[in-house]
Amino acid sequence: MIEQAYVQADDETAPTVKNIRERISTAVDATTGTALERLKCWLQMPVDSTFAKMSDSDCQVRAKRIGGLLSPGEGGLYEPSDLSVAIGVPAKWTAIDKAVKAERAVYVNGSTGHVGGAQSKFNNERNAGFHVIVFLAVGQESEGRGYYLGFDPDVSATTESRAAWKALVTGDPETKPQDFTATKSLEVIKSMILGSSEGGFGPLVRKYYVDTGKAFPKIIRA
Residue 171's pLDDT is what? Predict the structure, then answer.
């Protein structure tokens, strides 16, 4: 699994955290449809707070849609060639760097256990299947270690994302996603993606410390 961490207040990325936050906020506000359609556009959700079942497994379709919405740069969403093929790996990541710096989201397809979160409902012992996320920026730690800023719509992905979701559906009975009002749907989406800090993000946007010298593991078809 790609090592992941949350954005810190002093992190500097290209494009900037401010730029990414504004792009996400603008795109979310402009999303049309019912409250549930808006939620499904941006989030891969559980059916309830127990995470017993996910409402869909449409990560591929969702990533392409979201990536397009978050790509104001010329050329739109960038889809690199297969990242599990070892030939030309450094060049692929050079192209990805160029794309995110030009405000183009990058479609990142990998095995479930490699690009997904540690607590994802989609993880399995065989590491079968795939998951798709989008990269939005590139950054570097003070000691020189590089990372990518990525958005993973999977609400079940981490301990933090699960806790955030549970806090948003509190009540007796708890509020189901299909019962969210238009206002509530916006609140939930922005809370999960943007969080409450102007200098950071919610639990679905994380730093990914990719080894850009190695190919991704091969995807095992389920």
Answer: 66
